[in-house]
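quick q for whoever's on today - can somebody do inverse folding on this one?? i tried earlier but teh output was garbage lol. tokens:
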């Protein structure tokens, strides 16, 4: 039996645009230690056309087969370079510094299409994570790796990933997990629908009884980028914002103004200043009933918030009637002041409209947005795309899938209420009349969240669900007595890369 120390286990979450990693499992599962953008850079050689790089033909992985969905393509670039080696690529801080210095760098995103678009670039990223970030040694590598990847990898891709980790990185064991499954595991469920909102694509994955319903998977070309461009356009009507973006005494050119607005929007949502109204209503913070559940407060880690709320109420009680009226007026305006690039900018309720394009893509008409490929027909609003995906599952499964609506993605770490907002807009897809009741009719939709007993994840939202779920699976798999949920070195030596197919039921 293969035995691994929990402290040696490596967790890697490879998303379309981000990679998160950590080493070591603990009784209380920890949040990722490291996070980098899933991109590489290659210096353009003088006298050579981008080191043989062609921006016209697709990357290696894209030429193998068509994608599972026509909307999985990404406008984030991927430039293949047949002559480039793994060590030629810049990654992490080195790439950031080169770009900031204005160097001529060709940037590629090998995972942005949902599969692996260039194998050399993918290997460069994983190698950097293992040996530069986590400081492992290849010759004495005693660490097994549990890797989560976007759903729908081709079988050949899974086998090649397994081969890279054993033959290039010399790992002690290897497990491969579909990213949506890891996200649902983090919420403590085996059945549901996972909505993963990324930079420019949202993946929708129905799951039933621990298996992805592959024919029902879909993607829609909407993401964080669309929300940022939309809110940046709305902020043009805010005098405080425009005075900072393009001062009257020293106006900026249109491109600089647009960059300023989009960077400001990113700052706004990253600072947690956006709430998502449910079905068009302004989000409200419920008042307590005068009784504080101390145990619940301690478990949730919200002691500081409760103390601050109590102090605020005491100060309000001492204020005069006029002061209280003024405070209520200011609260109704929902104004906030942010410090951004040496400017003090006042924002109102318009910031809470950040997510509107997800639910009504027609709002993007006329705005400058580049998509990977022309999109024929109407882009479905998120609620319709989710409803359509669930309707592709068996009629006997739907009522159970609707009991696990889980919205995740990086921005759910900072933007609250997106799950409830989607839930309220999905009402037309479930029972609307008691007279229509059948044995299999869905009657309600339940929103999932990462449980609060995962202490490291309380304040970080549901965006880290993929890493948490991968950690949970690693803790179980690498301590399993039979060793059937991962590929050991012995398995790999006997069966080769095909061993990963037998390990992963989803690939059979």
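ok took a stab at it. sequence:
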């Amino acid at each position: 039996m293969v035995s691994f120390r929990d402290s040696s286990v490596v967790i890697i979450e490879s998303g379309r645009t981000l990679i998160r990693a950590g080493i070591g499992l603990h009784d209380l599962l920890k949040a990722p230690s490291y996070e980098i953008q899933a991109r590489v850079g290659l210096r353009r050689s003088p006298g050579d056309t981008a080191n043989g790089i062609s921006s016209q033909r697709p990357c290696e992985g894209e030429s193998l087969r068509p994608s599972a969905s026509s909307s999985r393509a990404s406008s984030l670039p991927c430039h293949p370079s047949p002559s480039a080696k793994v060590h030629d690529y810049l990654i992490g801080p080195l790439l950031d510094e080169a770009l900031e210095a204005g160097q001529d760098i060709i940037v590629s995103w090998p995972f942005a299409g949902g599969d692996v678009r260039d194998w050399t670039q993918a290997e460069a990223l994983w190698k950097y994570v293992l040996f530069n970030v986590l400081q492992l040694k290849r010759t004495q590598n005693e660490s097994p790796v549990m890797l989560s990847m976007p759903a729908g990898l081709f079988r050949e891709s899974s086998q090649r990933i397994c081969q890279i980790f054993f033959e290039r990185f010399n790992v002690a064991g290897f497990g491969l997990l579909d990213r949506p499954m890891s996200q649902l595991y983090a919420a403590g469920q085996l059945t549901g629908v996972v909505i993963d909102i990324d930079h420019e694509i949202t993946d929708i994955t129905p799951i039933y009884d621990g298996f992805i319903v592959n024919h029902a998977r879909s993607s829609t070309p909407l993401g964080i980028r669309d929300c940022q461009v939309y809110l940046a356009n709305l902020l043009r009507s805010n005098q405080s914002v425009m005075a900072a973006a393009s001062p009257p005494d020293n106006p900026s050119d249109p491109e600089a103004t647009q960059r300023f607005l989009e960077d400001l929007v990113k700052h706004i949502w990253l600072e947690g200043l956006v709430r998502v109204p449910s079905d068009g209503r302004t989000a409200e913070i419920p008042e307590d009933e005068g009784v504080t559940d101390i145990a619940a407060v301690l478990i949730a880690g919200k002691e500081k918030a409760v103390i601050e709320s109590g102090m605020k109420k005491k100060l309000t009680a001492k204020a005069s009637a006029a002061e209280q009226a003024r405070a209520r007026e200011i609260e109704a305006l929902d104004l906030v002041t942010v410090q951004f690039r040496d400017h003090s900018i006042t924002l109102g309720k318009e910031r809470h409209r950040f997510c509107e394009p997800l639910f009504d893509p027609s709002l993007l008409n006329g705005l400058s947005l580049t998509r990977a490929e022309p999109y024929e027909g109407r882009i479905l609003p998120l609620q319709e795309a989710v409803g359509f995906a669930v309707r592709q599952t068996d009629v006997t499964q739907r009522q159970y899938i609707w009991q696990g609506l889980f919205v995740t993605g990086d921005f759910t770490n900072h933007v609250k209420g997106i799950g409830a907002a989607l839930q309220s807009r999905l009402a037309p897809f479930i029972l609307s009349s008691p007279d229509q009741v059948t044995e299999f009719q869905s009657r309600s939709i339940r929103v999932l969240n990462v449980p609060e007993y995962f202490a490291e994840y309380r304040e970080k939202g549901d965006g880290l669900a993929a890493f948490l779920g991968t950690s949970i699976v690693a803790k179980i798999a690498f301590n399993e007595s039979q060793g059937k949920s991962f590929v050991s070195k012995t398995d790999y030596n006997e069966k080769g890369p095909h061993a990963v197919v037998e390990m992963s039921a989803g690939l059979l």
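fwiw Confidence is low (pLDDT under 50) at residues 54-58, 60-71, 280-292, 295-299. also Residues 279 and 425 are 6 Å apart (CA to CA). so keep that in mind when u check it
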